[in-house]
Amino acid sequence: MHELSVAANIVEIATEEAASRGGAHVLALHLKLGQLSGLAKEALIFSWEAICEDTPLKGVRLVIEEAPVVVYCPACQAEKTLRSVQEFVCPVCGVPTPEVLRGRELEIVALEIE
User: Total structural domains in the chain?
Assistant: First the structure.
């Protein structure tokens, strides 16, 4: 499960950041997850909880913001948000839109600490 190794890396990053802030207590970790990231949200949450079990991050909330796929439409000459990741066509004019601008994100957006 790819999500397990990703969760382990996120725990490592969050633990290091908390330590660099004098051992601050982490309350929540905010993550942006693109629809094309290759990760399943539910599997990532499960992996996060399992990995955190024996760490200082046990019980820390994982808040996931799902990021839609945004493409560039050559016909409209504008950014468009796909209706479905199954159809890479402009939702306005129907032209194929192979240029992905956003939607592959896997970013730690914020740590809530005290």
Answer: 1
CA distance 57 to 55: 5
Predicted structure pTM score = 0.86
Please give the residue range of the domain that contains residue 45.
2-113
> What CATH number is attached to the domain comprising 24?
3.30.2320.80
DSSP-derived pairing of the beta strands 26-34 and 61-67: parallel
Query: 46-62 as b/e, with b when 16 or more CB fall inside 10 Å?
Result: ebbeebbeeeebeebeb
pLDDT by 10s per residue, the chain, length 114? 589 999 999 999 999 999 998 888 999 999 999 999 999 999 999 999 999 999 999 999 999 999 999 999 999 999 999 999 999 999 999 999 999 999 999 999 999 998
